[in-house]
């Protein structure tokens, strides 16, 4: 689940299936203790709606890291002295960055750094599509060292230049759950 609408959709699906969710948050759902959880029965309902049931601890941690990295982007944009990615994640999870990185890489088949770059580029696409900021302003907000660095990374990830992206009438963007 990557947004409030996803949370509500999962809550609604669980209720329709006869479960009593007490808490539904990004990446997890808690059920009333009187209702026995049956992931095998719930999984097809969730998959039909485009969700997956993550039963393994590594899968759950990976999804929690992804949600935290989305929050980290906002931290980057708004913090006067932003934390490093590793400091942000170790504060969030009370675990070493090395452990988080190994679990994430093994589960997502992608490093945290590469996932964060993809996430940043999707945010850059969003900002570019609004047409309100220059590339330098976007680079500054996203904590790139320069507009040129952002432009190079944009081309590396998307296979096209920022100018080409801007010329497209309907630029293709990825949903957050398609990044990995």
UniProtKB/TrEMBL annotation:
The organism's superkingdom is given as Bacteria
Under the heading Pfam families, the entry gives: HTH_18
The record ties this protein, via PROSITE patterns, to:
HTH_ARAC_FAMILY_2 (PS01124)
| Gene3D superfamilies in UniProt | Homeodomain-like (1.10.10.60)
SMART domains named in the record: HTH_ARAC
Q: What positions does the domain HTH araC/xylS-type occupy?
A: 67-168
On whether Transcription is a keyword of this UniProt record, the answer is yes
Keywords of the record: DNA-binding, Transcription, Transcription regulation
Q: Does the keyword Cell membrane apply?
A: no
The protein, known as: HTH araC/xylS-type domain-containing protein
Q: Give the organism, scientific name.
A: Hymenobacter cavernae
Taxonomy of origin reads: Bacteria, Pseudomonadati, Bacteroidota, Cytophagia, Cytophagales
